TrEMBL record:
The keyword Lipid biosynthesis does not apply. Pfam families: SpoIIM. It comes from the Bacteria. This is Stage II sporulation protein M. The chain crosses the membrane at residues 18-38, 79-102, 109-132, 138-158, 170-190. Keywords: Membrane, Transmembrane, Transmembrane helix. It comes from Clostridium cylindrosporum DSM 605. The keyword tRNA-binding does not apply.
Amino acid sequence: MGTLLNERVTRNIKENMGIYFLILLFFSVGLAIGGFAIKSLEAGEKQELLAYMNSFFKIYSGEQVSGFSIFIQSAKNNLFSILIIWALSLTIVGVPVALIVVGFRGFILGFSVGFFIESMGLKGLVFSLVGIIPQNIVYIPCILITSALSLTFSIAVIKRKRSKGFYNQGGISIVSYSTIIGTIFLITLLGSLVEGFISPTIIKALSGYFIIG
């Protein structure tokens, strides 16, 4: 299954380089906007966010964290995002939605990492490295590939909207396409495991270090 998925994704990338470039462009723009958006925050807003995170670290250091609950919530969020992209890719709506989702994910990542680094300095960098980046190493490639696949499929649907079946230009049926998307979701569960069980353990161990003041 892994080899087959890798072959299909690799072939799809080679056949649709322009689409993957567009997806990466939207993600990069979202990432940059997220980073620059921090500059638009008022000093009072930054202090409120920082105070909230400080309280979070203080509570986190003294309470037991349910890794399973975090894992389940993360899996639900990923499933919802992928289902939305998959479902809308069967219509012409899928084209803008895929780009919007990618741009938004980039914005969230850029804003989060940028805020912590700017507000907490080295502590923020460490928190980003142990609490945000690890799971996103899995999430981001999955969401980028999912969005690119949905975009190519949406374009095929538009081109063949009067035909009886759904096939993309590479001849992949809706069943094969859905199977690939489902497999990608299963891969995101690895990120959810990291987010639910590994990152919280490290954050809890370092929570005293992250507290400011």
